[in-house]
Amino acid sequence: xxxxxxxxxxxxxxxxxxxxxxxxxxxxxxxxxxxxxxxxxxxxxxxxxxxxxxxxxxxxxxxxxxxxxxxxxxxxxxxxxxxxxxxxxxxxxxxxxxxxxxxxxxxxxxxxxxxxxxxxxxxxx
Length: 125
Hints:
The protein is mainly beta. The protein contains one helix and ten strands. The longest helix is centred in the middle third of the chain and has 5 residues, at 74-78.
């Protein structure tokens, strides 16, 4: 499977390649065509990208890319919390999404369970 993401000046985020000691940061200055090909080495260990409308979570697991795309809502932006990453000097903003699901351990009543971890850029404060 080959997936291409065109990283434009609208993007914020990072891509961490397997042959690099730290991630490459994208913050409105870098432009790049990111080709995710399961057969190529070096590969993207992890990536989080946000373009103002969509959030992309990229992981390389068991020899293939897992790319999860979220449509970002105003709720995601308003409820985002900062996280301090390893080997970067920028705080990352994420919103934890929750979804009500029936749980057999709670008499089949709906309980909130994690449904997504949405990256919405850098905290510039």
